[in-house]
Amino acid sequence: TPLMIGIDGEWGLAMRLDSTINYPRQMTLGAIEDNQHIYNLGAEIARQSKLMGIHVNFAPVADVNSNADNPVIGNRSFGENKIKVAAKSVAFMRGMQDHGLLAVAKHFPGHGDTDTDSHIALPVIQKDKAALQQTELFPFSRLFRSGVAGTMVGHIHIPALDDEQGIAASLSHTVVTDLLQHEMRFNGLIFTDALNMKGASQVYGPGEIEVQAFLAGNDVLLFPENVPTAVNAVIEAIQEGTIPPSALEDRVKKVLIAKYDAGLHSYLPADGKRLYEELHTPSAHILKQQLFEASLTLVSNRNKGIPVRNLETQQFASLTIGKSGVNLSNETLSLYAPFQHFYAKKDAKKTEIDNLKENLANYSTVVVNLYDVNSFSGKNYGLDAAHIELLNWLESNSKLYIIVYGSPYSIRALQHFDNIICAYEDDPIAAKVAPQLLFGALPAKGKLPISAGNLLAEGYGLPAKSIKRLGYSLPETVGIDSEKLKKIDEIAKNAISEQAMPGCQVLVARKGKVIYQKAYGHHTYEKDKPVTNRTVYDIASVTKVAATMQAIMFLNDQEKINIDSKISDYLPDLEASNKKDLTIRQVLMHEAGLSPWLPFYKKTMDGSELRSDLFTLSPDESHDWQFMPGVFGLTSLSDSVWNWTLQTNLLPESKKHQGYDYSYSDIGFYMLHRLSENMLNQSMNEFLEQNFYAPLGTTTLTYNPTNKISEDLIAPTEQDNYFRKGLLKGIVHDQNAALFGGVAGHAGLFSNANDIAKLLQMNLQDGHYGDQQYLQPGTLDKFSHKQNHYNRRGLGWDKPDNDRPEEGPASKYASKKAFGHLGFTGTAVWIDPEYDLVFVFLSNRVYPDATNNKLNKLNIRTKIHDAIYEAMFSFEEKQEKEE
Predict the structure, then answer these.
(1) For residue 799, which of 825, 822, 770, 765 has the smallest C-alpha distance?
(2) Where are the alpha helices (DSSP H) in 567-666?
(3) Which tens digit of pLDDT belongs to each residue from 277-298?
(4) How far from the centroid of its chain's Cα atoms is residue 726's Cα?
(5) In what order do the strands lie in the sheet with 702-703?
(6) Which helix (H) or strand (E) holds 493?
């Protein structure tokens, strides 16, 4: 008969086995309101256990943790509320047993109200039987009625049940037989807790203890210290008549029935092929994230500061206490706002605390990541007095937010603080989701499973809604096949090997969640610095939609412009030019007869050198803006460029229809830039920073990035050997945009993929993001839909070529509602409202020079865009097959 294999898998296989998924502890699960999540966890643990050839899980822990100082149960319990502990225990058990794994409830008759670790000594519970029935026995009673396969009897002494001095419940006939089997009518498999634990073994030695456990009524004796001695002792007890042979037969039959229930009558060895992949399925990881998301508990929100709003008015810092080095919480915080990160050692000296105060005094908002806290009041929950004093100082000098990555009992020492989120555990997923709650990408749903102070009773938890900021999740959560997304890796790596680009960033967001954010390659072909998700690129013509179009749509919302009016109505300079009758609509649609691009920069050169009357090597009254490091431009040079723009010729009118044919032009966006600044009475970069970029929480979406971003983060764009005679790094690539001081309507913006995704998501959400309406509802639809049958474009936005999808700028699968833009430097952004999809691709394909056109010839951007849709369709096909 095959062996029955058991495991302590309270939080999954990872409780005992490496290379497996570490699910949340039961106390974290205790914060979850919807017990379907708990059932799902039981089902997934069953699936993984069966893959490993495991038949029995010594879970759930059904102990009611009514003693906060419990040293051995604590976060292994669902909490202190017996009804919730019972309900969650039953859900967990049913999830396992419905999927073929035998569950074992523990530690009967209840280990929650102890202050001694039964691994070390024998805990004593001084309660009468009525009190035990009222609390400790309640969850077990529910589990027994619900059909739990087994129960484990704990090494605890309860005089009210058996007053024999020093006798553990696991060795007590009164407890195991009279109470458990007769009075509570449990007929499942009965396990002892491990017999090598001091709570049991301090009275009896090897052999003797196993006989006593057998006589008490247990069916399975776990972890004898000496197996041969134990077997011989039981045989001897049978031979002597101490143990009736019928008792042995009864136990064997119960074990065999359990083995049958576990499927061992049709035993097959576990298949080790692709075991790691089968254990680490997307759904298994999604479940873990869902559990942590559902458990997040907003404990304190006195000034309704969570979710955090008004990002543009705050200076952000984080302080991590109890964990050194870069952590995922800080990385996630930085996805939402410009953070500076600080660290406090667990044993920080006064001088270190004083230095922290000095540094943190400059920040209006401080988020504290609190690690290494525990449930023990005698040790002040792991909080040093110096840290509490620092937190009090921060509360009085800034807006303070505390995220607790540890025991909720520690909140008893923190309950006077205004803003607290409990994330329960030091786990990478907890560190990823808690900042999302703080910034409103996730709602708060959790409730405290225990009392955390006079003001914070069990079951307390404040609601907080999502305010539609981008979240960060896994592909399958939004209906995308992660396995199919791996095709992006292949395409990007091939493009780098073909030297179509040195490196790139790819970001995919769907349904408000970033589900793919990867960096490939290096800043240059010399492989001096790897691209990361923080790397900043020149986004070239994407500036048209990320800058100018945002201003134009804003002006349209404010009724400051009418897109069917002549552009000369807003730019009187045009009245005397050949452009006086052009409408804003014509310019936006590239149907204004304007030249695609003119090399105005050549007018600023004398042969191969910059003109000395326009540029100097040091600033003066007439040359007051930096053209590039060590070179300063004439103050009025942008006016000269504008005059050259006025003098440009128009293309011939269309022979097919009234007006001009479609001809993509940068020149029109010079005009829209100037129009915007005239109507806004403000420079474009200042307007966008104040009204869009800073409120959205972007840190890298900016003109002239070296003014605010470390040069180390910026990928070089081109080795310019013909105009600026140097490496362009943080300097706009487009020559004409450079003549505008780097701030132009057609080019000049820099960004990383994450920041531009925020702007695109706002556009996808009909102008709404982070509880703020940036553009009026309906505006994006007005500007992004196709305007006529002979031009694929919208107003300012590019569109897929649905007539020739294989040749268009977007994926052949993109819907008719999709809109976006491509950039000369090797960038692309696409929004598809029909599929709730955002795609960002950034690269510096023009490095080291712009003659490299392999990115376009190999169609890299479109292939990656295709792969995203294919992954989405693949997921849908799988769902249909399953249904």
Answers:
(1) 822
(2) 584-588, 637-646
(3) 999 999 999 999 999 999 999 9
(4) 40
(5) 537-538, 749-751, 702-703
(6) helix 482-497
